[in-house]
Amino acid sequence: MNLIFICSRNKRRSLTAETIYKNSNGHTVRSAGTEESARVQVNEKMLLWADIIFVMEKRHKQRLTQRFENSLRNKQLIVLDIPDKYEYMDEELADMLKDAVEYFVK
Length: 106
Hints:
Elements: E1 2-7, H1 13-21, E2 28-33, H2 44-49, E3 52-55, H3 58-68, E4 76-79, H4 91-105
Parallel strand pairs: 1-2, 1-3, 3-4
Helix pairs in contact: 1-4
């Protein structure tokens, strides 16, 4: 299954999720950001590739819908509701991600 995790700048939350889930249960995992300043900026090709799209906040879903509405049709898009207050690989962030994502990737 192809998973993509998306936050704003792809430096903390989505990158942590990618690190946790890469090499996990045969999933192929990527991460990206919605901002121009993102480490890796999300694009249409990434969204078409993904089987499940995880976003950290509702605003990320809104941005994706505004920019890539046609590419999101028939896609599973999950809002994780994880605020931007954690550092990369923060233990609490990792636990929140695992709790929120496990149901969808089993």
